[in-house]
Amino acid sequence: MGTSAPGRREVVRAGSVGIALGALGLGAAPAAAAGVDTPAQLTAALDRYMATRAGNAGLMVRDNRTGRYFAWRPPLNRHTHSTIKVLVLITTLKIMQDRGQGLTSSQKSLASRMIRSSDNDATDALVRFATLRRLRIVADQIGLRETTVHGSTVFRAPTWWGHSTSSPRDLVQTMNQLVLGTYLTSDRRAYARSLMASVTPSQTWGLGDGLPSSVHVELKNGWGPRSDGYRLNGVGHVSGQGRSFQLAFMSRSHNGYGYGQETVNRLCRIVFDALDQPLA
C-alpha cells in the first residue's frame, strides 16, 4: 500500500492451475543443507517455521526451469492491497498497446510512482484512466479466476481498489504474464519489470530482503491493517544463482507490520534455498 511503511491503499479476480503441492520449513542453514529437495520436504519446512509464528500465511511458486507449480496453504479471497497495482499497470499498458501508442510522459510518471513507491494517488489516476470495466476484462483475459477487482478510488471504502480480493495462484499468474507471456509486447513487459526491479528499498521486504546481491528481483508488495491482523502480501520474479521463479505470498500478522515482515522474509528465503535444484 501507501508510500513507505504502513500506508494508505490497493483490487482483482482468479481460478485454478496445475500444481505440484508442497510446503516449507525452518532452520538457520540453507534449505539444501537441511535436505529440502522435494515438495513434501518443502511443505514440512514451511510448516515447521510457521508453527513458531503468530498469524498465518500461504504462497504459490512457479519454477520456470520445469514449469511446475508448488502451493503451500494458498488462501482465497484475501484483500490484495497494493499487489493489485501490477494488474493496473498491465491494463494501462494493454490499452495503449491496443491504440498503437506508447505511454505518455504523464502515464510513465504515474506508473513509476505507483510501482516504485506504491503511491496511491498515482494509482487512483491510472485506475480512472483504465476503468473498472477494462481492469476486469484484462483480469479475465490473463486468466485470473480467483480474483475480484474493485475500482473505487475512495480510500478503504468497501469497493476501494485495494480491497480487491485474490489468491497467490492469481498473483503468480499475473507475474507470469510479465515474465513468460505474450499478452503485452516484449518491450512493454520489460518496461513493467524494470519498474518492479527498482522499488524503493523500504518496500522490498519479502522476496527482496536477505538474498545474495547477485540475485535479480522484480516485485510489488501490498500491505495494510485489518481488525483481525496486519496484511502483508507480495508477488515477484527471482532470477540468478541457477534459479528462475515467480512467487506470491499472502499473509496475516497478529503482531503488526514489522513482525509480519520478519515472517514473510523467512518464508521467501526458505523457498529460495530449496530451489537450489528444481523440485522433483
TrEMBL record:
Q: Which residues form the signal peptide?
A: 1-33
Q: What is this protein called?
A: Beta-lactamase
Q: Which Pfam family, giving just one, matches this sequence?
A: Beta-lactamase2
What PROSITE patterns would the database entry show? TAT
Which terms does the record give in the GO molecular function aspect? hydrolase activity
Source organism per entry reads Phycicoccus sonneratiae
The answer to whether UniProt assigns keyword Aminoacyl-tRNA synthetase to this entry is: no
Q: Where is the Beta-lactamase class A catalytic domain?
A: 95-248
Which keywords fit this entry according to its UniProt record? Hydrolase, Signal
